[in-house]
Write a structure and sequence with these properties.
Elements: E1 13-17, H1 18-28, E2 33-36, H2 44-56, E3 59-62, H3 66-78, E4 83-88, H4 91-94, H5 96-105, E5 111-117, H6 131-137, E6 141-142, H7 150-164, E7 168-173, H8 174-177, E8 180-184, H9 201-204, H10 208-229, E9 236-238, E10 243-248, H11 251-262, E11 269-273, E12 275-277, H12 281-288, E13 293-297, H13 303-314, E14 320-322, H14 324-327, H15 335-346, H16 377-395, E15 402-404, H17 429-440, E16 446-451, H18 452-468, E17 474-479, H19 508-514, E18 519-523, H20 528-545, E19 549-554, H21 558-567, E20 575-577, H22 587-591, E21 597-599, E22 607-609, H23 619-623, E23 629-631, H24 634-644
Parallel strand pairs: 2-3, 2-4, 4-5, 5-7, 6-7, 10-11, 10-13, 13-14, 15-16, 16-17, 17-19, 18-19
Antiparallel strand pairs: 1-8, 6-12, 9-11, 20-23, 21-22
Length: about 650
């Protein structure tokens, strides 16, 4: 069951993804506006809201980046519309500027900022702990301590934000976002949408003279927020004893389970802590009464531990406080980690269970992360590697460009056989890094490889910078007409909005020309001959003219193409290998590396195509040097050709 199936129901239970539970809580709270830029593990929150937006009268949008998403929802909240913006942890970096300002101005209605953190970096470039943003920006951070409370906690965040007229960060993690939970459904509130803005420049115009006054009010307001959080309904003191274990956020659930496994649940006092920033000092003082030592269990940084130690010192308490010295800093919480820390803290002998050893059967092929069969990035990478290797051979010197990669499926180009990513730092970092290499390296040009959604998100300012400062940079925009890596959300190249409304396509090549790029070309990467010609020409242009060039590799995402072909009532054209013609050169499965193609056996190197994996893109047929790869139905190939071109 998904969120959409719960609309119309105001009681009973439903099995929802954690992110869907957040969305349901927002709906029950009367949300009017929801914005986001997709990013795992936050994506499904606004994605599921988009599916029901038209039914409920909610405004939902996929914004071009997190800063714009934040500002849109923030403005709505200042005008009295209950609003939510969602993003992954690193996305909040992009929105940090308005985040800090929103604390100075406050809001008129509930404004919840969902920060989905990613301990263990399952789909991220770092392990940033966004609870620290709360301390820095003076914005309360609230976390679910159990999966079952996610929906109701979300509702409470809206109510608390409204009460204090201040933004609130609802911090989740990957395990919360992507675990299914039974949710008790409640009444759905009509969207609270006043839609009127009251002019108040002393509050909303943050010139220094106004900001200084607002800063003083913010510090005073922070003390008031601290007091209110001591009665927050999702916090609790459980049990009794002379030792206290603080379970911060979802770590509370691991603590409880660890205590039960160790058989000491009745010997320990536990502070169930949902409001991690600021620390509810009155509640914590009460939890510390008669306690001799404390263990703080939390993921990543010692955010709660630092605040608790400060309180202990301020109050002159003689209490031994442990935290990261026993729990550790790295990766997400687990039952094993929690048990290890609790056992050591309590002086209990604890032997960790040994892991189960498994061996894969010999017939199972290794499956490292790889581009999908039919992915339009594959022929582009194949051609680019071929062109660069040929140029090196012709010049008789290693002259390989510096490949500056970016965030997306295409980051997999770093792996063999393509080896086409030297750097991948953050969204838009390909062009930003290329700007720097262009002025610091003389013998190699930088090539920035960036996706369409990422280009709109953060690629335009560094492109303008390259034009303005005459940087010799080649930009390759991989336009597959969708935001693929996060689950196929639309973007300005797609032609539809989050709620399915038809939208104007903002062409990347038009943006490039408007920015002043003189060399701009668009091509279909499946046409290998044309692709190689344009790549070589563009590289030589940048080397000779010492100016930026931008080329757009445009071809529909394979998953989108297959879906569209089937919706047209057509079959996927399949390809096969003629064993009489195949010479076993391995070009199709080694150099081109299509996962639908493999050798027939370890002894027989002739290729075979798995019909279950083949998407019918047909590129393999064009690169086979002996013409051994053919379509089963040539007429069908012609019928779907335009679909692939997007």
């Amino acid at each position: 069951m998904g969120l959409k199936q719960t609309i119309g129901r105001e009681s009973g239970r439903a099995l929802l993804l954690g992110n869907e539970a957040i969305a349901r809580g927002a709906i029950e709270a009367g949300i009017a506006v929801a914005t986001a830029y997709p990013g795992t593990p936050s994506t499904e929150i606004v994605e599921s809201l988009a599916e029901v937006a038209n039914d409920l009268g909610i405004y939902v949008e996929w914004s071009v980046n997190e800063k714009v998403a934040f500002e849109t929802a923030f403005a709505a909240a200042t005008a009295g519309a209950r609003s939510l913006t969602a993003m992954k942890h690193v996305g909040l970096n992009v929105a940090a500027d308005p985040l800090f300002s929103s604390a100075y101005t406050g809001v008129e209605e509930g404004f919840v900022i969902v920060s989905a953190d990613d301990p263990s970096m399952w789909s991220s470039q770092n392990e940033q702990d966004n609870r620290l943003y709360g301390l820095h920006a003076y914005i309360p951070v609230i976390e679910p301590t159990t999966l079952r409370e996610v929906k109701d906690l979300t509702k409470q965040c809206f109510e608390f934000s409204k009460e204090i007229q201040h933004p609130v960060i609802l911090r989740t993690t990957t395990r919360i976002s992507h675990t299914r939970v039974v949710v008790e459904l409640g009444p759905i509130s009509k969207p609270i949408r006043r839609g009127k803005y009251f002019k108040d420049p002393e509050r909303y115009v943050l010139v220094p003279s106004n900001a200084r006054k607002l800063r003083a009010k913010l510090v005073e307001k922070w003390r008031s927020i601290e007091e209110k959080l001591s009665s927050f309904p999702f916090n609790a003191i459980e049990g009794d004893g002379k030792v206290l274990i603080v379970g911060a956020g979802i770590s509370y659930s691991y603590v409880v389970e660890a205590l039960e496994h160790l058989g000491i649940r009745d010997k320990v006092r536990v502070l169930k802590l949902s409001t991690v920033v600021p620390l509810p000092r009155d509640l914590v003082r009460k939890a510390l009464e008669g306690v001799e030592k404390v263990l703080v269990v939390e993921e990543l940084e010692p955010v709660v531990e630092m605040q608790l130690k400060s309180l202990v010192v301020d109050e002159g308490m003689s209490i031994e406080v442990h935290g990261k010295d026993l729990v550790g800093y790295l990766y997400e919480m687990s039952l094993t980690r929690a048990m290890r820390a609790v056992a050591k803290f309590m002086g209990i002998d604890y032997a960790e269970p040994s892991g189960i050893e498994t061996t894969l059967p010999s017939f199972v092929f290794p499956r490292p992360p790889q581009l999908c069969p039919g992915c339009p990035y594959r022929p582009l990478y194949y051609a680019l590697r071929k062109v660069v290797d040929r140029l090196n051979a012709e010049r008789g010197v290693e002259h390989e460009p510096i490949f500056c990669g970016d965030i997306g499926c295409y980051t997999l180009g770093l792996n063999p056989p393509f080896r086409l990513h030297d750097t991948t730092i953050e969204m838009g970092g390909s062009l930003g890094m290329a700007n720097g290499f262009a002025i610091s390296v003389d013998d190699r040009i930088p090539i920035a490889i960036i996706g369409d959604s990422t280009f709109y998100h953060a690629g335009i300012p560094p492109l303008i910078n390259a034009v303005y400062n005459s940087k010799p940079v080649l930009v390759i925009v991989l336009d597959n007409r969708i935001t693929a890596m996060t689950g196929h959300q639309p973007n300005p190249s797609t032609g539809i909005t989050a709620t399915g409304r038809e939208a104007k396509i903002v062409k990347i090549e038009d943006i490039a020309r408007a920015c002043g790029v003189e060399y701009v070309k668009v091509f279909d990467p499946a046409n290998i001959e044309e692709t190689e010609k344009i790549l070589r020409e563009a590289i030589e242009y940048v080397e000779k003219e010492r100016k930026p060039a931008l080329i757009v590799s445009r071809r529909l995402c394979a998953l989108q193409a297959v879906r569209k072909i089937r919706s047209m009532g057509l079959e996927i054209p399949r390809y096969f290998v003629d064993p009489e013609k195949c010479v076993g050169c391995g070009l199709c499965y080694n150099k081109f590396a299509c996962p639908a193609i493999r050798p027939r056996s370890r002894e027989d190197r002739k290729a075979t195509i798995d019909p279950e994996l083949c998407t019918g893109c047909g590129v393999c047929a064009s690169i086979c040097p002996v013409g051994a790869i053919k379509p089963e139905n040539p007429e069908l190939v012609e019928k779907v050709r335009e679909v692939w071109r997007g």
